[in-house]
Amino acid sequence: MAASVGSVAAFDTAHADMVHDTAFDYYGTRLATASSDRMVKVFDVARDETQTTTHVADLAGHDGPVWQVAWAHPKFGQIVASCSFDRRVLVWKESEQQRGAFTQVFSHTHHGSVNAVAFAPHEFGLVLACGSSDGSVSVLTYKPAENVWDVASIPDAHSIGCTSVSFAPAVPAGAVMPSSAGDPPAPQPRLTLATGGCDNTAKIWHRDDSTGTWKCDETLNMHSDWVRDVAFCPNGTLPVKQLATAGQDGQVILWTQAGSGADGDGWKGTVLHNFAPQPVWRVSWSLSGNVLAATDGTGSVSLWKEEADGAWVRAADVAGA
C-alpha cells in the first residue's frame, strides 16, 4: 500500500492565471514558474526546513500562455528558457551585476505552439531542444566564439505535433569511473534526445556531429494515445539507459536499453502502471534514478521506487488540490 505524504510546502505565486509548469535550477535554490497569464516568475528558495520563497523577477515577453520553463547549467550563468502558445521560445539571462535583472538573449519562432523545452547536459555546451505543435523539434546551440545561436531542425519529428523533449545524460550507461590504463577506451557520449508526440509514439534521436543533422535511432510504440511526456533517467552510472513515458492512454511505461554508446541493444518497454481512464501528464526522475514521480489527470502525484530486486512499487502519494 502506498504511504501518504504528511506535508507539502506550498506558496502563492501571485500568477493571475493557471500555473502550467515549475522548474528548479541546478542547485535547487531558484524556482521558475510558467503561467497562462503569459508570465514567467523567478523565486529564491531558502535551503532550510522553511523553504521560504522570495520573489525575484517577472519575465514578460510572451503573448500567450507559457507552457514550460527550463534552467541551463550554472556554468553558463543564470539562464532560463520558456516556451509558449505564441509559437515562440525565449531565452533569458540574469545580469551578473544586478540580481533579478533578466534580459532576453535569444528568441526562436515555430509555426505552432511550442510545448516543451529542455537543456542538454552541460558537457555538450549550451544546447536547448524545443518541441512544437507544428510537428518539428528545433535544437538551439549557443556558439560563444561568435556569440550567436545556431538553429538545427528536425522538421517531421512527429506528424501531428510534438509534446515533450528530454536529453539523455552525457555519461554512457554503466560508466562508474574513467577507464584505467590498459582498459579499452570508454565509448564517447553522443548527444541523444527523446521526443514524445501526438502520433502516439516516442522517438530516440542522436546528433551526427560530422553533419550536424539529427537521426532517429528508434521509434517506441506501446502507447495507444498521445505521449504526453518523456523523461530520461539522469543517472548515467546505472547499467542500462532508462526512459519513462507518460500517455493520454493512462500508461506510464519504463523503457530500458542495455549496453552503451551506439551499440546498445534495442529499447524494451514495460508498463509501470496504468492510470486509465485518467491520462498521465508528467513523469520526473530523482537524481539517483530509483524514484519516479507521475502526475495523473486528477492532479495527484504518485511516487514509484525501485526495489533491490528491480521491482517498482508505489511508495507514496500526494493528493491533488
TrEMBL record:
This is GTPase-activating protein S13. The keyword Ribosomal protein does not apply. Its main location: nucleus. SMART domains: WD40. PANTHER family: NUCLEAR PORE COMPLEX PROTEIN SEC13 / SEH1 FAMILY MEMBER, PROTEIN SEC13 HOMOLOG. Keywords: mRNA transport, Nuclear pore complex, Nucleus, Protein transport, Repeat, Translocation, Transport, WD repeat. It is found in: Nucleus, Nuclear pore complex. GO terms for molecular function: structural molecule activity. One of its GO terms (cellular component) is COPII vesicle coat. One of its GO terms (biological process) is protein import into nucleus. The keyword Nucleus applies. WD repeats lie at residues 12-53, 59-93, 220-255. Belongs to the WD repeat SEC13 family.
